[in-house]
Amino acid sequence: MFRVGILTVSDKGFRGEREDTTHLAIREALKAGPFEVAAYEMVPDEPPLIKKVLRLWADREGLDLILTNGGTGLSPRDKTPEATRELLDKEVPGLAELMRLRGLEKTPMAALSRGLAGVRGKSLILNLPGSPKGARESLEAVLPVLPHALSLITGKTWREGHHE
To answer: How far is CA 4 from the centre of its chain?
Structure first.
């Protein structure tokens, strides 16, 4: 199984003003593949806090896949892609493009998502939208390629129906 961390970035959620249902939608989508959620955390829209969790999960915890949700839009507080980009060894633009393309099939607002994808060490980091529907649809768009991508990044052997 690939170990996954889910990081919700939300000022209102962090203050307890909004329930985080997005992580539940992400967990549900992950059931379709060889994934186990090993970590979950919520932080406000503060780049130093976002980077702290991403570094911890990638460098110390060695999570294979880190999924952020929230902070990918156009409001002044939306800084998740900027915080993520600073930590990446390399970007994987095709995954972000695929997520936006799939979103555009549902709503033109998907074009406003600035989420990105990239690799830090042996961890793949994906920025998902903050809404449960947007996060789930974005993740579902890339689920078919994630096991192969994670195998390449982590060196773990995986093939359909079998994971070592």
So the answer is: 9
Q: Which two tokens stand for residue 13?
A: 């959620």
Query: Which pair of structure tokens corresponds to residue 40?
Result: 């979950």
Per-residue pLDDT tens digits for 111-163: 999 999 999 999 999 999 999 999 999 999 999 999 999 999 999 987 654 44
Q: Class assignment of domain 2-157? A: alpha beta
Please list the residues that pair with 39 across neighbouring strands: 5
Write down the domain spans for the chain. Answer: 2-157
- In sequence order, which ranges of the chain are alpha helices (DSSP H)? 11-14, 22-30, 47-55, 80-85, 93-104, 132-142, 146-154
| Global confidence as pTM | 0.95
Burial class (CB in 10 A: 0-12, 13-18, 19+), 38: middle
Joined tokens for residue 137: 């649809």
